[in-house]
Amino acid sequence: MSSFPDRPQPNSMQMEAKQPPKRILLFDSTLRDGLEGRGKILPLERKLELARHLDRAGIDIIEAGSCIGNQADLAGLTAVASVVSQTTVCGLAGASPRDIERVSAALAEGKAPFRLNTYTPTDIKVSKEKDIERLIEGIGATVRCAKEFTDDVQWTAMNATNSQLDIVARAVEAAVINGATTVCIADTQGNSAPHEFATLLSQLVDRVPLQNVVLAVHCHNHSGWAVENALAALHAGARQVEGTLEGIGPAGGNTDLEKLVMAVHADGACQGLELDVDFTLLEAASQAALKYLPSPTRP
């Protein structure tokens, strides 16, 4: 990998112009999703150690915490945003303005460019059209609120793979219209097969104008398909993959970023796609994570 200062930042409204069109962004959630559901609390110095490893390796985005935990989680966001030099730091916020404000305030204290990641479950029970309209209106309001604090706003369709296609498409469109620069399709239950996931992504690409938006995926590994689903998504047009070191995370875990990088290089169908990560340094980050965090139970 060439010198880090030349590496483009993924937090601009002009991301598509700055990034090569086949560039894959790696989004690490070890410090957020990797810790959730396991009752694991990392001391701040350990979080900062892992963040520095990820920064040196060339990870594009580090999701360093959320407002869902305690005040220490917000303090961790500020600390991570203060020590990384190349990576965009992201915080997860709920849909409420209060959540968005708290995460934004924590990230703004750091020196790194930051992203807000908001989310909405799309697997709603629909009895009438007004149910969908309320969902769409809420997504628009959430994204507009986040845009008041940063241009780099990601919206995530939680449990998209267990949702009606029409609802997911309308939700994604609402997020894009209101200013989201990244939209993420989440296989929250980890029960989608690669061909099913690729079909969903392809249908969304066909139905929603996504030319100026980064399409991202978040794949859980409950059925053992996380890496394969991420590859299928890349073939279907996704350009950001979310995962964790060693696949660490609740239940079956997340997409293993090391395995994903190896799979991209080995997959002939991925020829032409570009990664900007130092694999040796990524391995070092994984080894550091294993010292402090339990490996997931593999399916």
Keyphrases for this structure?
TIM Barrel; eight-stranded parallel barrel; globular; disordered N terminus
Give structural notes.
- The chain contains ten helices and eight strands.
- The model is unreliable at 1-8 and 12-20 (pLDDT under 50).
- An eight-stranded parallel β-barrel has the order 1-2-3-4-5-6-7-8, surrounded by six helices.
- The chain has helices at residues 15-18, 44-57, 71-83, 97-108, 129-147, 165-177, 194-207, 226-236, 257-266, 279-292, and strands spanning 25-28, 61-66, 88-93, 114-121, 153-158, 182-187, 214-219, 240-243.
- The radius of gyration is 17 Å and the shape is globular.
- Helix 5 links the parallel strand 4 and strand 5 (153-158).
- The longest helix is centred in the middle third of the chain and has 19 residues, at 129-147.
- The protein has one domain: Alpha-Beta Barrel (TIM Barrel), CATH 3.20.20.70.
- The protein is an alpha/beta fold and 299 residues long.
Number of helical regions: 10
Structural class: alpha/beta
Our Rg estimate from Cα atoms comes to 17 Å
In which range does the helix fraction lie?
40-55%
* Terminal CA distance: 34 Å
Mean of residue pLDDT values: 88
CATH superfamily: Aldolase class I
CATH architecture call: Alpha-Beta Barrel
In N-to-C order, the SSE pattern is HEHEHEHEHEHEHEHEHH
Quickly name the level 1 CATH class: Alpha Beta
CATH topology: TIM Barrel
According to DSSP, the number of beta strands is 8
Count of the separate structural domains? 1
Biggest sheet record: 8 strands, parallel, barrel
Strand content: 15-25%
Low-confidence segments, given as residue ranges, are: 1-8, 12-20
The largest sheet has its strands arranged as: 1-2-3-4-5-6-7-8
